[in-house]
Hints:
Blueprint: H1 3-11, H2 15-34, H3 36-45, H4 52-60, H5 65-73, E1 77-79, H6 81-87, E2 99-101, E3 108-111, H7 121-137, H8 140-156, H9 161-173, H10 178-189, H11 195-201, H12 208-269, H13 273-324
Parallel strand pairs: 1-3
Antiparallel strand pairs: 2-3
Helix pairs in contact: 5-7, 7-10, 7-12, 8-10, 9-10, 12-13
Amino acid sequence: MNRQQAVQSKRKKSPKSATIGLFFWLLVVAITLVNRQNILDWFKLYGYTAPSTVSALATDSTMTPYATKVFYVNHPSIDQKLAFSQNCNSRTEQTIVLGCYHGNQNGIYLLSVSDARLHGVEEVTAAHEMLHAAYNRLSTKERHRVDALLNDYYANNLKDQRIRDEVDSYKTSEPNDITNEMHSIFGTEVGTLPPELETYYQQYFKDRSKVVAYSTAYASEFTSRRQQVSNYDTQLTGLKKQIETATNELTAQEGELQASRARLQAERDNGDVQSYNSQVPVYNAAVEAYNAKITVTKQLIAEYNVLVEKRNAIALEVSELAHAISGDALPQSR
Length: 334
C-alpha cells in the first residue's frame, strides 16, 4: 500500500462512526422539534415590551409566568371599537366579553371598555383569550385528557344555567370549537371546578378566584338591572289589570248614573216629588262612589306612569351597558 492509499484508508469512517453521526443529527432534529414552540416564542418576544395597560391585565388576572408568556407572545392589543372591529372582523371565534384570538399564536385583541360599571371585563377577556392560545398549544394527548374533563363537568356537574346557556350558544355559532370555548369559559367564569380541573388551571392562574370575581361582578351589573326590569314589568302588569278593571267599572257606573239621572228627571217632570226626593240621596251616593273610583283610578294611572319611567330608566342602563361592550363600530340606524 503506497502512502496515498494509506492516508485515504485513515480517512474512511467506520460504520460505527456513521451511526453515531446519524444519531447525533437525529437528536438535534428531535430537540429542535420538541423546542420548536419555545424557539418561536423567543423570536416573537425578542425586543417586545408589553405596554403598561397590557401588563396590568396580566397582573390583575393573576396570570402565572407561563400564562403571561402565552399572553405576550400574542402581542395583545386593547382597541377602541373601530380598530377592534377591523382586527376581529374575520375572527374564527367570539366570546361574550368581546375579545378575539387569532389561531397559531397570531394575536390577541381586546375591546377597550371604559364604563366604570363594567370594571373587570378587560381582565376576564384577557384571561379568556389567553386560555384559547394556551389550548392551542396543548399536545394531542393532553388535549384529549382536558377535553374529557371539560365534557364530563359540563354533562354531570355544571349547574349554573347562565354558564350552560353561554356554552350552548356556541353550539350554533362555533359548533366545532365547543370544548375550546368551555376551556376558556370554565376557567374564567366558574367558581368551583372538580379537583383535576382546578389543578390543571393552576398552571395559568395564581388565584383563579380573582378572575371569576371580576366576571361575577360585571355580570351582576346586567343581571341585577334585568331583574329590576322584570320586577317592574310584573308590577306594571298587575297595575294594568287593576286600571282596566277600574275603567270597566267606571264605564258601567257611568251608564247606571245616566239611567238614574234620566229616571229622576222623568219623575220631576211628572211631578212625582215624593219619589224624586227619595231617590236623590241614592243617586248622590252613587255619584260619590263614582267620583271616588275616578280618584283611585287616577292614582293607579299615576303610579303606573311613574313605574314606567323607572322601568325605562333601568332598561336604558342595560342598553348602555350592552353598547359599552359591543364591538360594533358601525353607526346605529335612525
